[in-house]
Please model this.
Amino acid sequence: MKNINDFIKAKKEGKKITMISTYDFWSAKLCEKAGIDCILVGDSVGMVINGLETTLPVTVDEMIYHSKAVKRGAPNTFITVDMPFLSYQINKEEAVYNAGRIMKETGCNAVKIEGGEEVADIIEKLVSVGIPVMGHLGLTPQSVHALGGYKVQGRTEEEQKRIIKDAKILEQAGVFAIVLEAIPSKLAKEITEFLEIPTIGIGAGKYTDGQVLVFHDMLGFFEKSPKFVKRYLEGGRFIKDALKTFKQEVENGIFPDKEHTYD
Ligand code: KIV
Model:
């Protein structure tokens, strides 16, 4: 993906979009080498990297710090940056200021905003000043307290109607793609079929136009994963075993050996 038009093109051509949420130089470099279409610098950084309970405390400065590192690692990949909690909800001026800082200081390509109708005017404003916006519906982690926890959304008819309405409103407001998080696959299919812009799912089944997973989740860095995460590697176990081997070798005088010593 070079720009937002490529997202629409991919949908038209039926080419699935891949996105990985990650936060640093080396993982971004690997994503670019693997040909991942888009990197999301997610505000999940607060939970995944910094051990927070929610994404709420994450700041614009932290997002900028991580996004700059990602951009250095993946200079040729389309990069979307999450706008953290309260960096866009207060008013349009603050939203433009914060999104503008993210775009200017990181060199990334777009921002992502959580929410539906309630943020439509903010999205319109950002798009009008030339900032591409990705939407995010369903389970929106910045609203975890209002939602009563991290749980599947769109189970009731009322919730389904609201998410469908929000998807239409976001498309009209000018987003170039929408993340659909933790909703039943039937609902994601319906939304995907009526939108002209692509949907990128996480825990939303196989009918979305693309899929996003968090780097550390899909590589198995945590002991447990939610149902929607496929573990493509048991990274945590491999790393722990390597650390244990290092400890044993140092304690037993095996490392450093001749090969790893300057004469
Ligand atoms: O913060 C994040 O990483 C996200 C994805 C999980 C979609 O919003």
